[in-house]
Amino acid sequence: MKNWQWRRMASQMPTSLDKVVLGYVRKGILNGKEVAVKQLKHGSVQGEREFLAEVEIVSPVHHKHLVSLVGYCSTEAQRMLVYEFVPNNTLEFHLHGKRQPTMDWATRLRIALGSAKGLAYLHEDCHPKIIHRDIKTANILLNYNFEAQVADFGLAKFFPDNYTHISTRIMGTFGICIKGKVTVKSDVFSFGVMLLELMTGRRPINRQSSMDESLVDWARPLLTQALEDKNFDTLVDPELQKVYNTEEMARMAACAAACVHHFAPDRPQMSQIVRALEGNISLDNLNEGSIPGHRKVYSRFGSSDYDTARYNEDMQRFRMMALASQEHGSSENSG
Questions:
Q1: Which segments constitute the Protein kinase domain (predicted)?
Q2: What's the predicted TM-score (pTM) here?
Q3: Ramachandran class of 121: left when φ > 0, alpha when ψ lies in -120 to 50, beta otherwise
Q4: Which residues of 197-225 are buried (b: 16+ CB within 10 A; e: fewer)?
Q5: Among 45, 63, 71, 255, which residue's beta carbon has the most beta carbons within 10 A?
Q6: Which positions are catalytic?
Q7: Contact assessment for residue 116 and residue 273, using Cβ atoms and an 8 Å cutoff
Q8: Which of 61, 84, 107 marks a domain boundary?
């Protein structure tokens, strides 16, 4: 993009939308249209890495449920990313923000389905595949119709078909680094946690408990019982006041249980999740030889220390993502 376009847009960016770890996001005007501009901190190695990842990975990607990159600016002094403007804040804001009206069940299901479609496109329709690596409610943007768009590809990676995993370092909230093996099934796990948030209204980590209890550990036995009894009242967000479609809730519960499966290869593909949420496949197809919600694996592969290690990596990774989001959200929503 031309320098004069950037100067004009910069002069029209008084509104700060958000402060992010590596910079600021502001609202601007480009060619008469509203845009969101992420200005990264100058000299940040991690910011430079994320800038290059977004430009390389997001530029050619276009889908209804993915936030589009409109342009970027790269000079010696600054790095900027310009996205289409999505006006209605994040899923985290509407689900966990203070004094926000309760989202009804139909809205929650619509958000889950839209997010699943966006993620399925990255995993199955892009070549090479793309792993997002940062799926959480803070990275799901909403328009005024509460249609979901997956955002923030700063940690995304290409995943060629001949790869079994990507070895990566995972940066945590407090600078903690975890080495781990990441696959598309890591995104599926994170999506499963997001489904649990939509169902229960709870955050992924309970900061009120002495052990920072995870939503997955809390929900697992309740999922098992609810799916067996077809009664979800003990699991569902009390703010819904039991106003929900039981069949739709069963589909989302089965999807969540399958996504957070202990054995990563048994987690479903995102296209399966899309069809299950739509009611177009049997829920039995989500679980390859395992009982939804059960920690034990009934699989021809068996279980192993390697499987447990991979699951623990997923849990550690998501715990840090969740804590980072909650630290940011608590300051943003205070007052």
A1: 11-264
A2: 0.80
A3: alpha
A4: bbbbbbbbbeeeeeeeebbbebbbebbbe
A5: 255
A6: 134
A7: yes
A8: 84
